[in-house]
Design goal:
single chain; alpha/beta; about 60% helix
Length: about 180
């Protein structure tokens, strides 16, 4: 099943405008790309319109990417937004910290356009699939609840019918 990803929104958060330009150049043909030059601006943008995916730099003044990620994951409204760290921090320890905080991926700079495109596509497809499964589960739960109610009503009708049948055959048993 091929998914239509056009029209999805990506928020790129980086304090270096050239890095934002690169991300926009790579992704704007397929997605709507918003930009924020710091963590606080990113949180304000997210409050107004929740993006489908966030590309987040770690090393930024005032509020670093880790703090932004922590704030987003702590909020029920934003905890399900996939976050990919795009950073110059290249150690395994940095990557582990980012993934443990809840990021879905970690890409180091300098960016490879093809890797960025494919990883964004993959994580957006996963997000859509998770949302689809969540909706299907809700539909199934409603159906189970409805069927359970129908079964309870059927049981009640059956009990009344059996009581009426017993009364019509033997008044003593029916009164009992």
């Amino acid at each position: 099943m091929k998914q239509d990803l056009s029209g999805l929104t990506i928020l790129a958060v980086d304090d270096t405008p050239a890095n934002i330009d690169v991300v926009k150049g790579v992704l704007s043909e397929s997605y709507f790309v918003q930009a924020a030059i710091n963590g606080k601006m990113a949180l304000k943008i997210i409050e107004l319109k929740k993006p489908d995916l966030i590309l987040l730099d770690i090393m930024m003044p005032e509020m670093d990417g880790y703090e932004v990620c922590k704030a987003l994951k702590a909020n029920d409204e934003t905890s399900d937004i996939p976050i990919i760290f795009l950073t110059a921090k290249v150690t395994e320890e940095d990557e582990t910290i980012g993934l443990e905080m809840g990021a879905v991926d970690y890409i180091t700079k300098p960016l490879s356009p093809s890797i960025l495109r494919e990883r964004v596509k993959t994580h957006l497809e996963l997000k859509i699939a998770r949302e689809y499964l969540k909706n299907q589960n809700e539909i199934l739960e409603e159906k189970v609840l409805k069927r359970t109610q129908q079964m309870e009503e059927l049981q009640d009708v059956t009990m009344v019918a059996m009581g009426s049948l017993a009364e019509s055959r033997d008044p003593e048993t029916g009164n009992h």
